[in-house]
Amino acid sequence: MTKPIVFSGIQPTGNIHLGNYLGAVKNWVAGQAQKINYFCVVDLHGLTVPQDPNDLRFQTRSLAAMLLACGLDPNQCTLFIQSHVTAHAEASWLLNCITPLGWLQRMTQFKDKSAKQESVLTGLLDYPVLMAGDIILYDANEVPVGDDQKQHVELARDIAQRFNSLYEEEFFIIPEPVIPEIGARVMGLDDPTAKMSKSSAHIRGHAIRLLDEPKEIERSFKRAVTDSGNEIQFSDAPEKAGVNNLLGIYKALTGKSKAECEADFAQARGYGDLKKRVAEVTIETLAPIQNRYHRLMDDPTELDRLLAQGAEQARAIATPKLDRMKEMMGLVLPN
Ligand code: AMP
Ligand code: TRP
């Protein structure tokens, strides 16, 4: 049986945090051997809101190094920077020319983001077309994303279907969004009713960033919002959301069952013990990742080599697919 093809992207903006790691990256690492995986640092998507050029450059390399440090293995998956494979930008133009404007104006992320800005960039509207190209250039079957991106993957399906019906049935594979179970969602430590997010990761006490120092991690957990009770159990009750989140993080980090996690805290004297232990486990998990990250960032030649290798593998798939698209649409390929 052929292995399913997986494509996912992550934006190099904001600080990568424990929610990204537990909800996304850790699963990517675990699934590397079973499927054919493409992981992309989507710097072109980053440009859809204003960026400082030096920041964007640094964050793109830093995120790629962090993904490698988390365990993405360039011998098992293809990790690359989106702008290194020019087929992505080109495919988005071609797909723009078959995508009705109304489809894009309906996207809830566009409506939310544009409502917050005075001047809305064309790229922000076009964002899901670029994303559709990312996915369908690789014939991806599965697209692991958070639930906020489900609508964009559905749009990618619509765009792929439209291309197929205009030019050639079954040319593009129709991708499926793969949404992690709700339990995989890490909530903000400062507000356990809202998910931990990159855009709020700079706010003190909101997130554990993967590069936080042990002291900072202890401090953030210590300040985590809980309730006035003391029982350390999984619970769906809204007032228990804080404790539930801390236990959920502990469970995800240790790989233990719910019962085992609760048993670990049966003797605890209160939430202080829980916070301390979760901080310890987090620090233990992040220490080797941080080490590997710093080693890669200190060796730019090696990082560049790995990224060049990833881009070359990606190009080998994306470029021929793009050329077929061009031909079908009536463009003349150069000799
Ligand atoms: P983002 O930070 O929105 O660019 O998301 C990158 C990846 O991390 C996506 O697959 C998200 O579903 C995942 N992710 C982001 N925030 C969380 C969170 N708080 N808990 C679990 N997964 C998350
Ligand atoms: N839009 C996605 C996000 O913000 C990132 C992304 C870009 C992506 N291209 C993709 C995700 C292709 C999956 C597949 O999370």
Structure commentary:
- This protein is globular.
- The protein folds into two domains: 5-179 and 300-329, 3-Layer(aba) Sandwich (Rossmann fold); 214-294, Orthogonal Bundle (Tyrosyl-Transfer RNA Synthetase).
- The protein has helices at residues 18-30, 43-46, 53-69, 87-96, 101-105, 108-115, 122-136, 150-166, 214-222, 241-254, 258-264, 271-297, 300-329, and strands spanning 5-10, 36-41, 78-81, 142-144, 176-178.
- It has 335 residues and is mainly alpha-helical.
- Helix 4 packs across helix 7.
- Tryptophan (TRP) is lined by residues 7-9, 11, 42, 45, 131, 134-135, 143, 145, 149, 152.
Mean pLDDT: 95
The CATH class label of the largest domain is: Alpha Beta
Beta strand %: 5-15%
Oligomerization = single chain
Count structural domains. Answer: 2
Strand neighbour order, sheet with most strands: 1-2-3
The main pleated sheet reads as: 3 strands, parallel
Termini, distance in Å? 37 Å
Outline: globular
Uncertain segments are none
Using the 3D structure, state the CATH architecture of the largest domain: 3-Layer(aba) Sandwich
User: What is the third-level CATH name, the topology of the largest domain?
Assistant: Rossmann fold
Helical content (DSSP H or I, runs of 4+): 40-55%
SSE arrangement:
Layout: E1 5-10, H1 18-30, E2 36-41, H2 43-46, H3 53-69, E3 78-81, H4 87-96, H5 101-105, H6 108-115, H7 122-136, E4 142-144, H8 150-166, E5 176-178, H9 214-222, H10 241-254, H11 258-264, H12 271-297, H13 300-329
Parallel strand pairs: 1-2, 2-3, 4-5
